[in-house]
Write a structure and sequence with these properties.
Layout (H helix, E strand, L loop, with lengths): L1 E6 L4 H11 L7 E5 L11 E2 L5 E9 L1 H10 L1 E8 L9 E2 L3 H9 L4 E5 L2 E5 L2 E6 L2 E6 L6 E7 L2 E8 L1 E5 L7 H4 L11 E7 L9 E4 L4 E5 L6 E5 L3 E5 L5 E5 L4 E5 L4 H8 L7
Parallel strand pairs: 1-2, 1-4, 2-3, 4-5, 5-6
Antiparallel strand pairs: 7-20, 8-9, 8-19, 10-13, 10-17, 11-12, 11-16, 13-14, 14-15, 16-19, 17-18
């Protein structure tokens, strides 16, 4: 078994979690340490994040650390939350030892989450687990977005931006923009607008088999495509972005029985049965 440790930048506490996990894992399990850990460990196998390929990726930080690992590294992710919400993280720091023992005993399962493939003018620009956001690159400057679905024109809307989210990403930026929560097992994409200049527009849920095309009307209308808050791609009215479901999903490790327990724990904290 090969495991890798990926930590939030400038987080000395994260290295202590690595030590706690290391003390439990079997000696014959191979360890890989992200370069960020060089300041805290010696005589280890360090690698840049984009060169890490392991059976299990232990990400220690917040949701941003999970998304960064999903963007750059290869392997099934187990998120350990050192942040605020940590919706993408499986484990809180008070349950680290319990969880690692269960993983060593094989009391876990793998789940797959849908991934978006983003192309600009036909060329692959990147992938996203949560969402792809096309946003005006100037504050308080709206853009005129044109949306096409499977080659058919759908609508034209003035807004600050447009979000295309996966089901797991529906609990993130899309939710803040008024989009619905979509269960991870649902084969769909969520389209939400940021500050639309109209009362008629509402978020849409479309099949995951759809081909979404987005263009910006006008001349010299500069925007930025942001993938999971981690990667930025310039985009202008001369370009067209295509968003589809990738045929290679992200893999996560979970010890939970269902998604609803996480939903109650992270977002619906005051709900009781």
């Amino acid at each position: 078994m090969r495991v890798a440790y990926i930590v939030r930048k400038n987080c000395p506490r994260c290295s202590k979690i690595v030590e706690r996990i290391d003390a439990i894992l079997p000696d014959d399990w191979e360890r890989i340490y992200e370069d960020e850990l060089k300041a805290h460990f010696k005589d280890k196998e360090f690698r840049p994040l984009d060169e890490i390929n392991a059976d299990i990726l232990f990400t220690i930080g917040g949701d941003g650390t999970v998304l960064l690992a999903a963007q750059k590294a290869k392997g099934a992710i187990l998120g350990i939350n050192m942040g605020a919400l940590g919706f993408l993280s499986e484990v809180e720091i008070g349950r680290v030892e319990e969880t690692i023992f269960r993983i060593v005993r094989g009391e876990h399962r793998f789940v797959e989450f849908m991934k978006l493939e983003i192309r600009v003018n036909g060329e692959i620009a990147g992938f996203a687990m949560n969402e792809a956001t096309i946003h005006s690159n100037r504050v308080a400057k709206v853009r005129n977005f044109k949306l096409y679905l499977d080659g058919i024109f759908v609508e034209r809307t003035r807004a600050d931006g447009i979000i295309v989210a996966t089901p797991i990403g529906s609990t993130s930026y899309s939710l803040s923009a008024g989009g619905p929560i979509v269960m991870p097992a649902t084969e769909a994409m969520v389209i939400s607008y940021l500050a639309p200049v109209t009362l008629r527009i509402r978020p849409m849920v479309v099949p995951s088999s759809s081909i979404l095309e987005i263009a910006v009307a006008g001349q010299d209308q500069e925007c930025t495509i942001i993938l999971d808050g981690q990667k930025e791609i310039p985009f202008t009215s001369k370009d067209r972005v295509t968003i589809t479901r990738s045929n290679r999903p992200f893999r996560f490790i979970t010890i939970r029985r269902d998604f609803y327990s996480k939903l109650r724990e992270k977002l619906l904290k005051d709900v009781v049965n």
